[in-house]
Write a structure and sequence with these properties.
2 copies of one chain form a homodimer. Chain A has 357 residues and is of the alpha/beta class. Chain A has 3 domains: 4-47, lambda repressor-like DNA-binding domains (434 Repressor (Amino-terminal Domain)); 62-164 and 315-342, Response regulator (Rossmann fold); 166-313, Response regulator (Rossmann fold). Chain A contains 13 helices and 14 strands. The first copy, chain A, has helices spanning 4-11, 15-22, 31-44, 50-55, 81-96, 109-118, 131-140, 166-179, 193-204, 213-225, 244-261, 269-281, 315-330, and strands at residues 62-67, 71-72, 75-76, 100-105, 123-127, 144-148, 159-164, 186-190, 237-240, 263-266, 291-293, 310-312, 339-342, 345-347. In chain A, the strands form 4 sheets. Chain A has a 6-stranded parallel sheet with strand order 4-1-5-6-7-13, sandwiched between helices. A 4-stranded parallel sheet of chain A has the order 9-8-10-11, with helices on both faces. Chain A has a two-stranded antiparallel ribbon with strand order 2-3. In chain A, strand 10 (263-266), helix 12 (269-281) and strand 11 form a beta-alpha-beta unit. The radius of gyration of chain A is 25 Å and the shape is elongated. Chain A starts with a helix and ends in a 10-residue tail after the last strand. At the A-B interface, helix 4, strand 3, helix 5, strand 4 and helix 6 of A face helix 4, strand 3, helix 5, strand 4 and helix 6 of B. Chain A binds a DNA duplex (16 and 16 nucleotides) through helix 2 and helix 4.
DNA sequence: CTGAAAGCGCTTACAG
DNA sequence: CTGAAAGCGCTTACAG
């Protein structure tokens, strides 16, 4: 490794001057010296030692990617195509702007805290964190942060939310199913820690609330269903267990109810695909006997037969935006808006059939 | 953050002594002092500053996870369920033993080199690297390394390969298809950089070779097909493009050939699933008209209809083993074997039908 | 048995 | 306009 000292030697100046040029503190350095040093820096592809940077409190250029849940759909989270794609996108963008991504298994706050302070990360990106959980952490950790797919009520400017317009996504699903003749369609979502606790309580009271994306989706769905003056009861919001076996059991129990409703909106493609196969195994034809809509438009949505009607979100863009916003915060900018929501779009394929008469 | 100095102050000793206790250099420290210091260390949950550790050349506790390809199946690699699961497993295990995982987009060697030396990583885990590419890197970078799913011919002890028994996997597929009445089955694999270049050349000459897992699988497949004295030509090894559109074109072109063969073994579940749907769209029934076998047993293998017959590999275990071996190398152990291959097992489901007569 | 001191590669307030 | 020196938190050879 080439050191600052080496550069200084080559240029015939002191380390101080090189450092000053490096940091743009060039007010009182001659143009000649600047040019000379810059050239040498270039030629030698100088990279400051990270250990030193950390020690001198100049940040680490590390972005911690905190995954708030260990398992989704009963599999390790990073297996989830959505998380995988998001991570790919974040990693890619970070690399482009000279940051490094360190993965933090975020299931326990203590752990996040420990890694973040030990590594002196410059910023954090959270996925799968509720506002409450984040605030808990926030009190003990003063870092720039971007939350992905978390909805907040309070207005604060030390963190940001990057998401998609989940409400609109849910709304589009609701509207479409209504139009296709399913005024009693259900909305099915996999349980998260949040949903399992406080959120459900708040949901039951039909009051406005914040939480994870799935709840927003339901709210949109509900609003669409109610647009002609009908009431869409909270009972049509079905929360199913995270564990695959238990989920299957619940599906079996609720099958008559599903068939009566005629159509199901899902919070994820994964669950929608799972349902399509579950129904296949029970001799029930999709969409002839039951219509199904997903969310995400993951790569398997086009694979499954019938091809899945779903809501497309641009995960790659989400990752890029998250990194970009975080970078700006790290560099000291104050961003005007708290939320960034990318638009979503219903992709109609073959898993919904218009109800007769 | 609590510093070494703070601990020393509390114990009423010097930093040196604390450091000595920390590193087990306790030959000439009184038991009393040791106990006292250890207790304080515990109580304060002391964690040495990483920047200092890096600066004093004591390693970084970083494991670089190098992903050798940007895209698989035309999607970002970390979206691939296999990579995702492997990453999850590595991350988990690393966290358990106090290491940290940094992702390195490994498509260019220069980049890997730069990050590895700048961060002074303790070790590297490579996925999707050919032996040739790794050796190239190896000359400029002296780090402990574990290669996942790369097969090597040379015997060296400064790196390790962790894989599954791909040969056996291919063999099991070949044997099964033979037994089910398909002596002319084909083996279909997605192109990699290696396959596109040197390996194909070597393959054509039917000589022994090293490369990525897919080639081993084909070798096993071929051996099984040849066990009754028949010859299995290299022409039955079909390499298809990485780009989805091109792949589809090739499938269309080769469809008559596929149907004549009656059965296809695939190098990955992804490609097998893709084929099942491709066939569905062309009105061809699986397994009635064409039998299909996958590889990996990913979570979608049970989802697709017909459920996919495939080779199961234990990806989680692979990740754990990779980290464990790397740790031992980092700690200075010399490991006796170069290869670790986990066994694989054919999982028979519904995508192969016995050929009549 | 224990501690003072030098050094890792950088930054920055300060002196010239 | 430029550089000598102190300091970040740790390790380690060395002196006592």
């Amino acid at each position: 490794m080439i050191r600052l000292q080496d550069i200084a030697d080559m240029a015939g100046v002191s380390r101080t001057t090189v450092s000053n040029v490096l940091h743009g503190k060039t007010k009182r350095v001659s143009q000649e010296t600047i040019d000379k040093i810059k050239k040498i820096l270039e030629e030698n592809d100088y990279q400051p030692n990270i250990g030193s940077m950390m020690l001198t409190g100049k940040g680490s250029r590390i972005i911690g990617f905190v995954i708030g849940y260990d398992y989704t759909h009963g599999y390790p989270s990073t297996m989830d195509p959505f998380i995988g794609q998001l991570l790919a996108s974040i990693q890619n963008q970070a690399e482009k702007i000279g940051y490094y991504v360190m993965i933090i298994g975020g299931s326990t706050e203590k752990h996040v805290l420990e890694i973040a302070s030990r590594w002196n990360v410059d910023g954090l990106i959270f996925i799968g964190y509720s506002e409450g959980r984040y605030r808990e952490l926030r009190r003990k950790l003063n870092k720039k942060a971007v939350l992905v797919d978390t909805y907040t009520l309070q207005k604060e400017y030390d963190y940001q939310n990057v998401g998609i317009d989940d409400y609109s996504g849910g709304y589009q699903v609701g509207e479409y199913l209504l139009e296709m003749g399913y005024p009693n369609a259900l909305y099915v979502v996999e349980e998260t820690k949040v949903l399992a606790n406080e959120a459900v309580r708040r949901l039951r009271s039909d009051k406005p609330f914040a939480g994870l994306c799935n709840e927003k989706r339901w709210q949109g769905f509900k609003a669409a269903m109610e647009k002609n003056g009908n009431f869409c009861s909270i009972r049509r919001f079905i929360v199913v267990p995270r564990e695959a076996q238990l989920r299957k059991l619940q599906y079996e129990r609720m099958l008559p109810q599903f068939l009566e409703a005629g159509a199901l909106g899902f919070g994820s493609d994964y669950n929608a695909i799972e349902m399509i196969n579950f129904l296949h195994d029970h001799g029930i034809k999709v969409p002839d006997q039951l219509s199904v809509v997903g969310f995400d438009d993951c790569m398997y949505a086009e694979f499954i037969r019938p091809r899945l009607t779903t809501v497309r979100q641009d995960v790659l863009r989400k990752g890029i935006t998250a990194v970009e916003r975080l970078r700006r915060m790290i560099e000291g900018e104050t961003l005007p808006e708290m939320y960034v929501s990318a638009p979503v779009e219903l992709v109609v394929r073959d898993s919904v059939r218009r109800r007769d008469g």
